[in-house]
Amino acid sequence: METILSITNLHKRYGSLQALKEVSFEIKKGHVYGILGPNGSGKSTTLGIVLNVVNKTSGTYSWFGGKVQTHEALQKVGAIIERPNFYPYMTAEQNLKLVCKIKNINYSKIQEKLELVGLIERKDSKFSSFSLGMKQRLAIASALLNDPEILILDEPTNGLDPQGIHQIRAIIKKIAAMGTTILLASHLLDEVEKVCTQVLVLRKGTVLYSGPVDGMSTNESFFELQSKDNTLLVKALQTHPSIETIKEADGKVFVYLKTALEAADLNQFLFEKNIFLSHLVTRKNSLEEQFLELTKTNKTTTQN
């Protein structure tokens, strides 16, 4: 599968502040990638570097297998990394015609892209009359005019109401279904979970996880137990060599492992100690729980 973007050991410093540290990942053609992390984790810095608007401190990145120089590669990239900025007194169509003229793109693309983002009926409306969601959709249409191989979006639903968020996500899915590779940065787990297939989790400029979105929630499993006497249950569990941590909440006992252990083997172990379980469930951390665990932060300030 063709590599669209390859990043290796990317570092960025702003004076004494380490904004990125050893960031490495690859983007393959045809996938939807998310860079996920709290505000200040380094998402926008990463995008700025690969789009050649922020200078890296060290490390390397290459577009399309290194076959073309960055300035040439960026002609195949569509990107929205700031708030939509069009002429307010011009219509949607007039603004896109201006973009076409600047980028030497045929005007025939305008109607196609306005239809894609659901703005064809508002093509003659002035930009100043648009809602924030409509402005963002027009920005996406603009970024797609050159039929890019990859679309880069920085916090695409930031500040939108629920309807606007739903519309932007639907458009992203539609664009991806048409074969365009997408890279989006977001601090919203829900956004990445719903539209991305691959995710890079950043915290303070460091990669905490890279891989399939679903893989984030499969890293750790635990048991949820209950018996008539949870005090005796806990005492027995403390003697098992595979158990690392035991917690109690809401009348249940939660068991976290340091080595693999099957539910049947745990049940047998307790049975032999005359402890009979009324409840035994194997659980995995939800994606939200895993993300919160990964991104626990202190008060250190970082650059976004």
N-C termini distance: 31 Å
Runs in which pLDDT lies below 50 for 5 or more consecutive residues are 298-303
Number of helices: 10
Helical coverage, percent range: 25-40%
What structural class is derived from the secondary structure elements? alpha/beta
* Global outline: elongated
GO molecular function, one term: ATP binding
Family: Belongs to the ABC transporter superfamily.
Keywords: ATP-binding, Nucleotide-binding, Transport
Domain ABC transporter: 5-229
Report on this model:
With 304 residues, the protein is an alpha/beta fold. The protein is built from ten helices and 13 strands. It has helices at residues 43-50, 70-73, 92-103, 109-116, 132-144, 162-177, 189-195, 230-237, 263-271, 287-294; strands at residues 3-14, 17-28, 32-36, 58-63, 77-80, 150-154, 181-186, 198-203, 206-212, 221-227, 243-249, 252-257, 277-284. Strands 5-6-7-3-8-9 form a six-stranded mixed beta sheet, with helices on both faces. A four-stranded antiparallel beta sheet has the order 11-12-10-13, covered by helices on one side. A three-stranded antiparallel beta sheet has the order 2-1-4, with helices on one face. Strand 1 (3-14) and strand 2 (17-28) form a beta hairpin. Mean pLDDT is 90; it is low at 298-303.
